[in-house]
Amino acid sequence: MDPKLSDIEHPATQQDPTTPYDRHPAGGWGSVEGIARVVATSQTSAVAARILAKLNKPGGVMCSSCAWAKPAGPARFEFCENGAKATMWELDRKRAGADFFAEHSLTSLRAWHDHDLERTGRLTEPLRYDAATDRYVPIGWEEAFALVGAELRAMDPQEAVFYASGHAGLEAAYLYALFARAMGHQNLPQSSNMCHETTSVNLKTYIGTPVGTCTLEDFDHCDAIFFFGQNTGSNSPRFLNILKKAVQRGCRVVTFNPVRERGLIEFKSPQNVKQMTIGAPTQISEKYYQLRPGGDISVLAGLMKCVLEAEDAAPGTVLDHAFISEHTEGFEQTVEAVRATTWAELEAHSGLTEAMIREAAQVYLTAKNVIGIYGMGMTQHVNGWLNLGMLCNFLMMRGNLGRLGAGVSPVRGHSNVQGQRTVGIGEKSAHMPADKLRALFGIEPPEQDGLNAVHACEALLEGKVRGVISLGGNLLRALPDIERMEAAWPRLRLSVQIATKLNRSHLVPAEVSLILPCLGRTDRDIQAGGEQVISMEDTFSHIYGSVGGAEPPSDSLRSELAIVAGLAKATLPQNPNFDWDGWCANYDRVRDLIAATFPKDFADFNARLMEPGGFYRGNPARERIWNTQSGKAQFTPPTMLSALGVIPDQPDVLTLITLRSNDQFNTTIYGYSDRLRGLKGSREVVLINRTQMARLGLSEGQKIDLVTAIEPETERRVSGFTVTAYDLPDGCIAGYYPELNPLVPLSYHEKHSKTPAYKGTPVRLVP
Ligand SMILES: Nc1nc2c(c(=O)[nH]1)N[C@H]1C(S)=C(S)[C@@H](COP(=O)(O)OP(=O)(O)OC[C@H]3O[C@@H](n4cnc5c(=O)[nH]c(N)nc54)[C@H](O)[C@@H]3O)O[C@H]1N2
Ligand SMILES: Nc1nc2c(c(=O)[nH]1)N[C@H]1C(S)=C(S)[C@@H](COP(=O)(O)OP(=O)(O)OC[C@H]3O[C@@H](n4cnc5c(=O)[nH]c(N)nc54)[C@H](O)[C@@H]3O)O[C@H]1N2
Ligand SMILES: [Mo]
Fold first, then answer.
1. Angle of CA points 19, 374, 208, to nearest 5°
2. Which of 19, 64, 66 to mutate to test the pocket of ligand 1 (most atoms within 8 A of CB)?
3. Cβ–Cβ < 8 Å for 58, 71
4. So where are the chain's domains?
């Protein structure tokens, strides 16, 4: 690999000119090779080709790899490298059946890497843990449901937790949320609690909506896009095509990210034969600033200072006074707090110079319509709430909210994470209207708030949780503090894992443990009423039907909806309003229930299900209707200048950010390459810049431990990580999720939403 930096010039701080970089742009041939590698191990290529050809298109499968939009006019191939990988990973030829589990004890499987566990292939039949042999053994579906039902009935409902990874469709999610409430609890943590919960809770208080205000259309009309902590090239690559188009029509892109993420630097579209063969890649970010983790508040304060200065110089021409006075509250206090900050402190917290921030501000000031994009780099911090508050402030100063071409746009992760929340997965009564539950089902839903992910973990550690059901996901890898969680897990009475593939969370048994294998999204779903469609909601609040196309890997799989219904039927008392079998037979009937429960969002759901581009459920903030307490959009004064909870003041304490590679989907590890960052071979690495490496007396390739530098009474340590030189700002290091999750304390989370601070944990490196 060429040890030189990419020859493209960037105004970013280039602390480390010897960083190994993949000189190839995002997209390009590398992504095609990545797809080919996964295709080689998947089902017969004819089936795969058929499914991929219709991926993200009306009548096809909606990709499970991210929540990006499925446009009404799709490209010839409306999928990316990761979408193809996720699809192929599910269309796996291999099977993890009863024979596999007869061969391997759980003790032996716990030594396997995440990658190797999922590589065993699709799960094929329901399994029950047998403690005497330390193995999973087959169990019939009816017996499994009866067993779980008896266990749940024997519990106080408050002792049960129903987790959902944001993957299952709206129909299964709705029944799951109904099941919990009919049982008498709202302990419905979801993957978003580790992800965009910062958005759900805080955007709601600022602008009255828990979701972003943009739609795809805005990207045709924006003049500038500001990126904060979202890695498009790895995590939502189809967005790159949209960005490319925007840049080519003159839209300017400015990025703030501690890591120089390839996809935001330049991009070759794998859709574009000419560009793939002879064309030059499109440069994406005109300006790329490697700020310090947690530095966004200071950057935004600096940008706001520049806007105020421009307004002072030409009063009445820069701020959108009409918008501010008619639509917002708190402007004066916020301006006062911004003016009170000094450039010296903003530079110290952001790691950028005043000149850099001034340069970025010029882009903002010359753009009429601006979109603010953000991801985990903003949400997974203790003061993530203020990150979002500052981004809204920045946009609102010039009225960049609720008008075409402008807005705030969180990029969601799991393909239906937002939709599951829309249909009732959530710990609060407000997530599923009680009056509707009374009217439709004659049940009295619980009033007491339930448990979100962090609360559920705390309760589990205290022994207050006795049963966990997981509708997808891999909690014992994805959570913070996973070693403490794993140690507590065997004290559970019941653990039920509804899954497609084997993962670590299946290997830590409770007294009663089951794996219930389900159909994946690519699988054809045939029920008594014929072939079924499921649906999901994207990051722009559009809702689509998804139709599986592959033969299921085994005859004994059930759909997620059928499994939820089976469990509910075996647990809940008879109720003539609960037609679990009828709902299973025809998912249209579940969509009718969703429409009846959430009429504003889902009127005529069945009729609109297959609309190309999805149907839009609307967003009041986009119409400048503010469902906040005050009825206005809220400015938020910067009461602190870093999003980090602990700002390291000892020289040996560094801020750890945990990253994803393009060769993983969360805890699913496809392989050991991080092509876009020019890294491969191992995930047990700690990335650090050469200056810091020298300062700490470390050398490249050295093996070290990492130890968390807060709550010293509980040691959190990982061992045997390889020191690797990488272009990062001073004072921070990076490594991979989930390998580094033992280091993140459960207590270290965003203030209002409890989203774990996975991007800002203080650690020490111990040789
Ligand atoms: N291939 C692939 N696609 C995925 C996923 C996957 O694992 N693999 N996961 C899916 C899911 S569930 C989600 S939520 C999304 C996640 O997608 P993203 O929101 O992009 O999340 P991350 O990759 O965790 O981190 C985003 C970026 O934040 C930067 N960052 C870290 N700290 C800071 C900071 O303090 N400030 C700023 N400005 N930037 C910072 C990191 O360098 C990184 O580039 O992707 C989804 N798509
Ligand atoms: N350190 C650190 N930790 C993090 C993050 C981070 O950035 N840093 N990110 C956080 C984020 S953003 C998220 S969203 C969470 C993710 O946390 P989770 O959603 O809990 O984890 P996943 O890795 O997405 O779950 C993978 C498993 O889902 C199952 N699965 C796959 N497809 C299906 C299906 O169709 N149906 C069912 N029932 N099961 C299926 C498979 O068994 C697979 O092993 O992790 C969080 N954890
Ligand atoms: Mo996520």
1. 165
2. 66
3. no
4. 5-12+648-766, 26-91, 98-195+421-612, 197-415+629-634
- Say yes or no to pLDDT of 478 above 90: yes
Helix then strand then coil, in percent of the chain rounded to 5, is 40, 20, 45
Architecture of the structural domain at 98-195+421-612: 3-Layer(aba) Sandwich (3.40)
What confidence score (pLDDT) does residue 48 get?
87
Mutational pocket test of ligand 2: of 235, 452, 482, 666, the residue with most ligand atoms within 8 Å of the beta carbon: 666
- Fold assignment, 5-12+648-766: Barwin-like endoglucanases (2.40.40)
Ligand 1 nearest-atom number relative to CA 664: 8
Q: Please check whether residue 39 is in contact with residue 88, taking contact to mean a CB–CB distance below 8 angstroms.
A: yes
**Whole-model pTM?**
0.95
Residue 365 · residue 331 · CB < 8 Å: no
Residue 78 is predicted with a pLDDT of 87
CB 68 within 8 A of CB 538: yes
How far is Cα of residue 666 from the mean position of the Cα atoms in its chain? 8
Tokens of 295: 């530095």
CATH fold label, 197-415+629-634: Dimethylsulfoxide Reductase; domain 2 (3.40.228)
Cβ of residue 503 lying under 6 Å from some atom of ligand 2: yes
Residues 180-208: tens digit of each pLDDT? 999 999 999 999 999 999 999 999 999 99
518 lines ligand 2 (CB under 6 A): yes
State the Cα–Cα distance between residues 489 and 475, nearest whole angstrom: 11
